Amino acid sequence: MFSKEKNAKAKSGRDFTQLKTPHTYAIIFFAVVACWLLTFLIPAGKFSTHTIEYVDSDGDISTRTVLMADTFRYSYNLNTDSVKEILTGMSQDEGLMEELGVDKEALLAFLETDSSAWTQEDLDALGLTDDVLYAQYGEAIYDTSKKLHKVAGVWGTEDFGGFGFLNYVFEGLVTGDRSGSAVGICALILVVGGSFGIVMKTGAIDAGIYAFIEKTKGLERLALPCLFVLFSLGGATFGMAEECIPFAMIMVPFVIALGYDSIVAVVVTYVASQVGNAASWMSPFSVAVAQGIAGVPVLSGATFRLVLWVGITGLAAAYMMVYAERIRKDPTRSVVYHEDGHLRERLNAVSAQEREFTLGHKLILLEMLAVLIWIIWGVTRKGYYIPEIASQFFVMGFGAGVIAIIFKLNGMTINGMASAFQSGVADLAGTAVVVGMAKGILLVLGGSDADSYSTLNTILYGLGTALHGVPAFIGAECMYLFQSLFNLVVTSNSGQAALTMPIMAPLADLVGVSRQISVLAFQLGAGFVDAFTPVSASLIGVLGVAGIEWGKWAKFQIKMQAFFFLLGTIAIGIAVAINLQ
Q1: CA–CA distance from 404 to each of 50, 119, 220, 364 (Å)?
Q2: Burial class for 369, CB neighbours closer than 10 Å (0-12, 13-18, 19+)
Q3: CA separation for the pair 232, 311 (Å, rounded)
Q4: Residue 240's CB: how many other CB atoms inside 10 A?
Q5: How many CA atoms lie within 13 A of 207 on its CB side?
Q6: Burial, 402: exposed, middle or buried (Cβ in 10 Å; 0-12, 13-18, 19+)?
Q7: Cβ atoms 151, 38 nearer than 8 A
């Protein structure tokens, strides 16, 4: 029987168990195409927005622009006849014009023009935006006979012919600003890559790893669960995410030297931080924002969440160790076995002299530790973010290079520092491109602005309204599933909260669960799936420094996501059972 199967494989020339994982670029491209095709099927929609105030985790009054759930409407053409009638009546109402900030003379002059050619842009010039008119007159301003789609062209740029999906790479790369995705994250990745290029050239990390293994004498494996808890704590307390990128660069050679694979390095850093984020009792970027928008006292329910964090972190760390020990016993079982080969060879080829842990190596590691403490202090106390963090890591790389020159480590010179920085940047240039490409998925769907017509807004509205009238636990579980799916395209915790919580919070009232549970569903979905979605700039950055393609990461992570979803479902069930408030 087995020989027949073998012969059949030989005849066909194909072994389906050895199919190659698609490249990350290819996966994202087909995701962009799929989303583009989706825009032909789903009409565009939008919400009106308003600014709310809430008490943040520091006890201060903060503001957030959020959508108004009852203002959703599809994209329609203007009903110019109706609009002309409305504006004619408005021109005779002095009080209304004053209330809306409309100049009477400009309005009268506008009414003299051909109404059949009016556009929303013309009305905007009068101060009569779509939101203003809809708030005053509802759908009377639209021709509701046909819902419109917002479909990107095949090619084009924002400033020349309009966005086309084949330009998703460039448009994705230039979105955002220096403090966010994609521009800021791309710059951070390149600076961190260059800085660690210098650090790795000094040999300090390799020497430190061997010194650690030699000193711990077989107890080194206990380091992994301890580190997992620390990174989970970072995610729970200050929303650690992008900060994991440089840590992953240190962890990859460390765990491979212990006999594991680079996947373990990503799990113990980035995945751990997102586990903490999912069960956080105090993160100012997720639970505090979501509770403020939902009208729930900020940081309430902390006892339940703290117990949840302990349980989920412990179980997730145990899951990691089961996988890690399986790989340690048989490294060939890893989906990244071949990718990790160059690191194993490099570590095995290190001579006894190179393994010597010198004073110069110790000073570099101490300097790195000092910078990492500086970063954590800056993030938690001073509000440092991407620009500041990038600069801090540049200081770390520069300082390591200077120490290496003084102590003549690996023949380091000024030119050697520059070359090492250049090599480090080159190694992560492909990862920076992936960040921009992944952002293109969101652009094709119309973006994440609730106040602009997009396919994504219609999906948000449709999934939200589908939960009306279901039983309490089913409703809460569907909220969790919805937040998980939504996080596949919108990975910003605060951004997702602003988009979804104004719908999910009142929906919780309708299905008979507390708003606190709707916040919990948001947390769990947004946190866990951040460790999987290729749209997450932070995840792509960590995978890039670890040398793992997203497709291979997904092979491992899909099982872990199923485990996380089970834990989340249990947490939701318990919250419903005790009526978490």
Answers
A1: 55, 65, 27, 8
A2: exposed
A3: 12
A4: 28
A5: 22
A6: middle
A7: no
The whole-chain average pLDDT of the chain stands at 87
Report yes or no: 487 and 532 within 8 Å, Cβ to Cβ: no
Q: What does DSSP say about strands 73-74 and 45-46: parallel, antiparallel, or unpaired?
A: antiparallel
Q: What whole-number distance in Å separates Cα of residue 541 and Cα of residue 429?
A: 10
Q: N- to C-terminal Cα distance for the chain?
A: 61
Residue whose C-alpha is closest to residue 115's, from 84, 141, 79, 77: 84
- Smallest Cα–Cα separation from 66: which of 294, 300, 298? 294
Q: Does residue 461 carry a pLDDT above 80?
A: yes
Within 10 Å of residue 383's Cβ, how many Cβ atoms? Answer: 9
DSSP lists the bridge partners of residue 8 as: none
Phi-psi category of 336—alpha, beta or left, where left has phi over 0 and alpha has psi -120 to 50? alpha
Give CA–CA dist 332/109, Å, rounded. 77
Report how far residue 125's alpha carbon sits from residue 452's, in angstroms, rounded to the nearest whole number: 17
Give the max Cα distance, the chain.
Answer: 91
Confidence of residue 268 (pLDDT cuts 50, 70, 90): very high
Prediction pTM value: 0.80
Specify the long-range contacts of residues 62-68, CB closer than 8 Å, at least 24 apart.
62/292, 64/289, 64/292, 64/293, 64/494, 64/498, 65/498, 66/293, 66/450, 66/498, 66/501, 66/502, 67/450, 67/451, 67/498, 67/499, 67/502, 67/503, 68/502
Q: Which two tokens stand for residue 55?
A: 């008490």
Position 350 scores a pLDDT of 63
Structure tokens at 381: 């106390």
Instruction: Please say if the pLDDT value at position 562 is more than 90.
Output: yes
**Average pLDDT over every residue of 473-488:** 91
Q: What is the pLDDT of residue 64?
A: 79
Contacts of 246 (CB under 8 A, 6+ apart): 192, 195, 196, 393, 545
pLDDT of amino acid 20: 66
Number of other CB atoms surrounding residue 107 within 10 Å: 18
- CA 243 to CA 57: how far, in whole Å? 21
Q: How far is CA 358 from the centre of its chain?
A: 40
The answer to whether the Cα torsion of 384, 388, 393, 398 is positive or negative is negative
Alpha helices by DSSP H, listed for 487-549, are 493-511, 515-529, 537-546
DSSP character string of 420-470: HHHHHHHHHHHHHHHHHHHHHHHHHTT-S-TTS-BHHHHHHHHHHHTTTT-
How many Cα atoms within 13 Å fall on the side-chain side of residue 15?
7
Whether a cis peptide bond, with omega within 30° of 0, leads into 182 is yes
Name the pairing type of β-strands 77-78 and 73-74. unpaired
Side chain identity at 406, as an amino acid letter? I
